[in-house]
Amino acid sequence: MSTIRIVLMIIFLLSLYFMIKSEGAILWVGIAIISVVVFLILINRHMKLTQVMQMNKALADINQNEHDYLDGSSIPFQNGKEHTLPKHAYTYDLDIFGPHSLFHRLNRTATYVGSRKLAHLLSHRLSNEEIKEQQKAIQEVSNKLEWRHEILALAKTGEDSQSTYETLMDWTKTEVKLHSSIMKIISYLFPILTVIALISYVTVGGDIPRLSFAFLFLINLGILGQHFKQIKNEILGESQINKSIQKYSRLLYKLESESFESPKLKKLQQRLYSKSESASHHIANLSRLFQQMDSVHNPMGAIIFNGMSLYHVHTLRKLQEWKSVNASKIEDWMEVIGELEAINSLSNFAYNNPKYVFPQLNNEEQIIFKDLGHPMLADTIRICNDVAFEDQKFIILTGSNMSGKSTFLRSLGINMVLANTGAPVCATSASIHPLDIYVSMRLSDSLTDNESYFFAEVKRLKEVMDVADRNLTFILLDEILRGTNSDDKRQGTVEVIKKLISKNVIGAIATHDLKVCDTTNEYPTQLVNKNFEVEIQDGELVFDYKLRDGVCKNKSATYIMKKMEII
Predict the structure, then answer these.
(1) Is the pLDDT of residue 123 over 50?
(2) 176 vs 320: CA distance, rounded Å
(3) CATH at residue 328
């Protein structure tokens, strides 16, 4: 097709040459018109075939990537490290973003707005009503396997980046300069006179029609020159942006044309209709206008089409009119695409894990998981445990090194994060009171802030206390106050626990100091001791990673050091 189009362009130029050389050559006019029409038809056909090829390649990549992920050979998705916030309430501590993170495993987005929306979902809690609507949407979309794949394939058919998105958003905020009434009249009058002069020259001949045509042709180019700066300002500067806009249009159409039952998906569809026209229709028109405007960079085409018809001046006027009516809606339409891709990612997660459950919600300040596991561990090695925060809302967790305390805390935290997004959780049943989450598990010295590890930890605990003052909060703490001596650490840990339970929080704290567990004797209705135990069998340490009641009895550190002949 590309070769045929080149041949047609040569035929068109030759026909123009012979038309000018031989006066009254109607045959050459006809050949020129036919070559242009066929050329335009082939462009349209070529674009459609290219889209089909891109879709098929994207679908093949999607299935291969999913296969590689499910068999454990790789995680071929964007890991979201750009969303990492070390001082966030929980995302840094729970490995929500970055390599091998929760985002890395969930992410099936291919647009900047989709990645941003999924990251926002994983770092903010939805309201109870929003969680219920999200659960229904995820359940419905998880069953639309081919539709989900087509959504992702469409999103992958063009490159997308933050700069692309921001360039488009900046364009929507620039000033709209509509043509005056006089300019509209001129833009139609002069092309009409030019065509009349050309027809007269072709049919009658003579110097007057020929000179009139040449004069009007040059005037039209002069009018183009007056608008050229404005045209350049309106063109977004790179063809890749227009490809992204075409992709957005196809994504929106895919959402608009699907039938849904869940209220949230219906609401997303409703946001895409303005009067009688859909968002996909408007965005497709915008893409077409940008494509037409971008052809001004073709010198030969720009001279011919503008000299005859002021093609780009008319396109500029249509683009400005489109902008004045629709520019303010683009950001919301992009947000809908982001929501769609985020739901698609969570639905893929639900489909890949059919044994996971959507938690029931309660307003009784209870969090109950049966067979809770870490969703980022393979099924073959995952150990699950029952845990309930009912009468006693805070757990003091003990256990030797490597016994599973930190993994258990992360299992709690990550599943609460999933529940807050409306996604299923790694459990056989769950009932939760959705809560804001605050975690202190991973801190470090900060040379840039000139603060020690201990001071960083104290600041973190102050944040925890402040949050607990405002709202009922789910809190996870792992071996706090590591930056001080043992007596100070024990006393400080006990006081922190007492302060937390006075604020009606729900959560758990892991500690190696068994004397901290004595605090439950003072507050038996609020605190409970749980532990992970280790056994020595045939001279080897054996961890079963099962959660037990009470305080840990066995120790592993001394045994390991003796076995390795350190002591």
Answers:
(1) yes
(2) 6
(3) 1.10.1420
